[in-house]
Design goal:
heterodimer; A: about 110 residues; 4-stranded antiparallel beta sheet; about 50% strand; B: mainly beta; 6-stranded mixed beta sheet; 5-stranded antiparallel beta sheet; globular
Chain lengths: ~110, ~110
């Protein structure tokens, strides 16, 4: 158990809908990362937050947004969903988000858009 | 364009033998490399890392070798055990800052046969 909690584990929805994925980092970790793993793809970095502030952006679509709350949990909002958004979404956390820190990953949310 | 490439989607190795997983990268600005291991229904877990100032890092049965001139790294597992059966992701981090997310390869599924 990495200590990172993601909910829900599975989510099935329809095209055009909006969903929210939730992540609780390990106790004491201030930085949260979101990654997307599509079929036959490596993990694609989406976005990073540190102590409530956005720190880095990767390949995140404009239809997607995220935030980190004062209690340090994070939510990833996906809107106007398309079939291609079906993927496994991972959250990871680290203490400060600095370069050589290990990331601790949650077990992911499997999103299926039908 | 895939900046971190793991060209073998799967690898089968007999228990007790050496497992060698390969990874190539194209971006010369990567200066820190990591291997993550992933079991089904779990998130990736950190295995071992190497800085670009080194050419080898060892941790128990796991050794990572880095050949900067060839932009190639490899993970050696000796001896291979049944519990090593998992998907292994190679990841790289850009130099010059701590805020960038990791760039992952697509993974290699290692199967250890009894």
């Amino acid at each position: 158990d990495s200590g990172v909690t993601q909910t829900p584990k599975h989510l099935i929805t329809a095209t055009g809908q909006r969903v929210t994925l939730r992540c609780s980092p390990r106790s004491g970790d201030l930085s949260v990362y979101w990654y997307q793993q599509s079929l036959d793809q490596g993990l694609q970095f989406l976005i990073q937050y540190y102590n409530g502030e956005e720190r880095a952006k990767g390949n995140i679509l404009e239809r997607f947004s995220a935030q980190q709350f004062p209690d340090l949990h994070s939510e990833l909002n996906l809107s106007s969903l398309e079939l291609g958004d079906s993927a496994l979404y991972f959250c990871a956390s680290s203490v400060t988000g600095l370069r050589d820190e290990k990331l601790f990953f949650g077990s992911g949310t499997q999103l299926s858009v039908l | 364009d895939q900046q971190v490439k793991q060209n073998s989607p799967s690898l089968s190795v007999q228990e007790g033998r050496i497992s060698i997983l390969n990874c190539d990268y194209t971006n010369s600005m990567f200066d820190y490399f990591l291997w993550y291991k992933k079991y089904p229904a779990e998130g990736p877990t950190f295995l071992i890392s190497i800085s670009s100032i080194k050419d080898k890092n060892e941790d128990g049965r796991f050794t990572v070798f880095l050949n900067k001139s060839a932009k190639h790294l490899s993970l050696h597992i000796v001896p291979s055990q049944p519990g090593d059966s998992a998907v292994y992701f190679c990841a790289a981090r850009l130099s010059g800052g701590g805020a960038d997310g990791l760039t992952f390869g697509k993974g290699t599924h290692l199967i250890i046969q009894p």
